[in-house]
């Protein structure tokens, strides 16, 4: 879901879809969802776009922040377990 590329919600009237999308965009932008990564020499950051939104802050000028994109091809379903090998609440499944 991205306001630049999302044009509506299938099978939802246009005005209602716009209202839902606006709510979702605002919800995703709430401060408590955000993570700020503090770069240090040799830092590496990665995320799974199936589960997060990446919104970069351009606050590092004049430093350079190179990036490389890795894309996994295909779809899979993974059962997510915590560090102790237990299923997350509800037996969470992540669909990618």
Overview of the structural elements:
With 96 residues, the protein is an alpha+beta fold. It has one helix and two strands; from the N terminus they run H-E-E. The protein has a two-stranded antiparallel sheet with strand order 1-2. The longest helix is centred in the N-terminal third of the chain and has 15 residues, at 14-28. It is extended and about 50 Å long. The two termini are 14 Å apart.
Shape: extended
Contiguous uncertain segments of 5+ residues: 90-96
What is the string of SSEs from the N terminus onward? HEE
Q: What is the radius of gyration computed over CA atoms, rounded to a whole number of angstroms? A: 17 Å
Count of helical segments?
1
Q: Separation of termini?
A: 14 Å
Please list the strands of the largest sheet in the order they lie side by side: 1-2
Mean pLDDT over all positions: 76
Class by alpha and beta content: alpha+beta
Residues in helices, as a percent range: 10-25%
**Main β-sheet description:** 2 strands, antiparallel
Report the portion of residues in β strands: 5-15%
Strand runs, count: 2
């Amino acid at each position: 879901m991205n306001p630049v590329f999302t044009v509506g919600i299938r099978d939802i009237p246009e005005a209602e879809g716009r209202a839902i999308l606006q709510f979702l965009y605002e919800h995703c932008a709430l401060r408590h969802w955000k993570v700020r990564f503090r770069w240090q020499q040799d830092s590496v950051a990665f995320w799974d776009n199936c589960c997060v939104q990446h919104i970069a802050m351009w606050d590092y000028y004049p430093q350079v922040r190179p990036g490389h994109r890795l894309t996994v091809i295909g779809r899979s379903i993974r059962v997510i377990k915590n560090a102790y090998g237990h299923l997350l609440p509800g037996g969470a499944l992540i669909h990618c």
